Amino acid sequence: MADFAGRSNIIFYYYNSFLFYFICIFINGGGGKSGRVLVTLVFVIYTSNAYSSDFSVKFNDADIKEFINTVSKSLNKTIIIDPKVQGLISVRSYERLDKEKYYQFFLNVLDVHGFTVLEMPNNILKVIPSKRAKSSAPPILMKDDIFNGDELINRIIPLKYISAKNVTPLLRQLNDNTDSGSVAHYEPTNSLLITGRAGTVKRLVEIISEFDREGESSVDMYKLAYASATEVTKLVTELLRPNVAGKQDTAQMVKVVADERTNSILISGDPASRKSAESMIKKLDKEQISHGNTKVIYLKYAKAEKLLDVLNGVSVSIKDEKKKVSHISNTIKKSMIKADDQTNSLIITASPNVMYDLEKVIEKLDIRRAQVLVEAIIVEAQDGEGINLGIQWDTKQKKVGGFISYNKSNLGNIQNGVTSIANGISGLTTGFYRGNWSGLFTALATNSSNEILATPSIVTLDNMDAEFSVGQEVPVLSSQQTTSTDKVYNTISRQSVGIMLKVKPQINKGDSVLLEIRQEVSSVAENSNVDKDNIGSTFNKRVVNNAVLVKSGETVVVGGLLDKKVSNVINKIPLLGDIPIIGNLFRQKKEKIEKRNLILFIKPTIIRESDDYLSTTSEKSKTFNEKNNDWNLCISENDMSSRCNGNNILFNLDKKTSKELISIINDMRDFYKK
User: Fold this and answer.
1) 638 and 510 belong to one structural domain
2) Rounded to whole angstroms, how far apart are CA atoms 8 and 162?
3) Of the segments 82-86, 246-250, 412-416, which one has the largest average pLDDT value?
4) Domain NolW-like spans what residues (predicted)?
5) What's the confidence (pLDDT) of residue 69?
6) Same-domain check for residues 380 and 519
7) Is 348 helix (H, G, I), strand (E, B) or coil?
8) Cα separations (Å) of 532 from 479, 481, 485, 524, 528?
9) pLDDT tens, position by position, 107-137
């Protein structure tokens, strides 16, 4: 049974009013005109009070949905009821409620029974179980709003002075214990997100405002006399860090920063925290009793002897700087650095602050250095012949796996690649070649006009000299001495002749390499004899000193070193040309002048990691096998193909036989076509 004293109560008041009106007229006995006016005025006042009176509520074991529908009609609000909202309620108000109190009374009744009202747009209310309230998008507030009752809201509160992480556990205890309330923090913006009843959230905001106030924070500077500011800062920060769960975060209340330039420590925070940190710093900033500590540092990559001179110079600079900073000369003890070649280690004796700086320097110097693979081809080309590389470059690009493929359309490209490097070879020429290295070698080797003098391949460290030398030690008469008995004593020295290549690669930013190149090709001149009438041998020497910047994997071409060779050539008829006197009629003698051009091809490849080295080794091994192992040749009915399928025949032949077989097959094809 439900008895609602809203509009029904108004009807009751009207009924009593009319009854009162007629009773008054009856008592007044008609009372004349003035009496009726007085009674009517009393009636109007009474009825107007009845119409404007507040709400009173009384429900006994009523369905909660009936209660919600009654409130919806009374407040003229649209209310959506979740299907899970069920139950009976018994409630009664002993005082009259205005519209605002009546609505809060409605919210309180639902809250007691485990339900929540969410205010939606367009003045629509939604009644749902409280357990689902947090996931049903309650309104988000950034500041105080009209909500002040049991409405479910979200409130975002940015904090200025205190840590959101530290205050969250306290607020969780003060928030609603029901499933609808929660407190979360977001560290990047130091903000809180509180979900709960508007009244509870407002109370929590007031509590937070009392905590989130600017304290007596300032900055102090403590100048160290003995210890390193960086090391002490690390220790103090670690000591201030909490190690017990739930303990106050002291590290966030005080901040410790090192100033290496002045060897000072800056302390920021409240007075108590600053005092605690300063006490720790004073205990750590003590003079060492010993003259210094000694450490043995084993090097991984660098040479101990190489670092010795550098560290001695650095240690002097460090000590001078420490003296200026601390203003106490006797605290900086004499440092001693020794190198042990057997173990490639450094023995350092120094004060702790100097030792720390030296260790940092060693750490930056003892690193794995990049290496450079330097490959070179030194070739002599007959002047005027050029270097024919077109066919080899073109077919090399078409090579697939272990098979050789030929394409008739390639023949038109041959002329474009011929003599491209040797153009303008009359002077010292420098250029770049970006083709295949093994293809370049093949092109040079198969040209009968070229003579490959050397093909050195050297791996060297960055910024280190690499030298390649092949030749002989030729005896040279350096001096003669005649004694009183006419005996002659000769002093003989040795002169190196042959091929010498010296390269110093320096890796620049990115993958570029600066190459300092020195190349020398020397030989003893023909018809140069050492005898009593000759002061010594004559040497032919061609030298190049050059520096060039090239990318890793590209080839530098240096040419233009001409050598003129004069020789006498005799052409004769066998037997007849050897007859004395008349033999001159059957033979011809002429002078032959031959000019040869020395050209250097050099390619640097940067090797930074061990994987790069293994990859380069594998590539070189593959190239070697291609040059020396048997070829796999596929022959089909129509053409030679790089794939063996259909009616193809697969042969496994040596290189020479393969070439001969290809020539025979081509001749046979031409014959059948004709």
Assistant:
1) no
2) 56
3) 82-86
4) 155-215, 220-288, 294-371
5) 84
6) yes
7) strand
8) 12, 12, 17, 18, 13
9) 778 877 878 777 776 777 878 787 776 665 5
Tokens of 515: 């190459």
Distance CA 288, CA 271 (A): 30
Q: What pLDDT is stored for residue 596 in this prediction?
A: 79
**Is-contact 613 607, C-beta < 8 A?**
yes
Q: How many residues does the chain have?
A: 674
Q: Of 116-125, 277-286, 415-424, which gets the smallest average pLDDT?
A: 415-424
Closest by Cα among 43, 318, 261, 107 to 335:
318
In a domain, 651, yes or no: yes
Residue finishing a domain among 606, 624, 648? 606
The CATH number of whichever domain residue 223 belongs to comes to 3.30.1370.120
* pLDDT computed for residue 76 by the predictor: 80
Predicted confidence band at 640 (pLDDT cuts at 50, 70, 90)? very low
Which string of DSSP letters, residue by residue, matches 350-409? Answer: E-HHHHHHHHHHHHHHS-PPPEEEEEEEEEEEETTT----HHHHHHHHT-BTTB----GG
What span, in angstroms and rounded, lies between the C-alpha atoms of 475 and 92?
Answer: 130
- Judgement on whether residues 582 and 545 belong to the same structural domain of the protein: yes
Tokens of 95: 């005082």
Mean pLDDT of the chain: 71
377 plus 521 within the same structural domain: yes
Distance CA 389, CA 439 (A): 8
pLDDT of 257 above 80: yes
* Structure tokens that stand for 483 in this block: 């004694």
**pLDDT(504) > 90:** yes
Q: Does 76 reside within a domain?
A: no
The number of folded domains in the chain is 5
Say if strands 78-81 and 124-129 run parallel, antiparallel, or are unpaired.
Answer: parallel
Dihedral class, residue 190 (left if φ above 0, else alpha if ψ from -120 to 50, else beta): left
Does residue 596 fall inside a structural domain? yes
Do 466 and 578 belong together in one domain?
A: yes
Judgement on whether residues 437 and 523 belong to the same structural domain of the protein: yes
Residue with tokens 């940015």: 158
Contacts 24+ apart (CB under 8 A), 511-514: 511/551, 511/552, 511/553, 511/606, 512/549, 512/550, 512/551, 512/552, 513/372, 513/549, 513/550, 513/551, 513/552, 513/604, 513/606, 514/547, 514/548, 514/549
Instruction: With respect to residue 410, please indicate whether it lies within any of the assigned structural domains.
Output: no
Domain boundary among 237, 266, 284: 284
Residues 303 and 322 placed together within one structural domain of the fold:
yes
Task: Map tokens 């033979």 to a residue.
Answer: 587
Residue 246 pLDDT exceeds 80:
no
Residue with tokens 């620049």: 508
**Do 563 and 350 meet the contact criterion of CB atoms below 8 Å apart?**
no
254 and 322 both lie in a single domain: no
pLDDT, one tens digit per residue, over 545-556 is 888 898 988 888
Domain that holds residue 250: 218-284
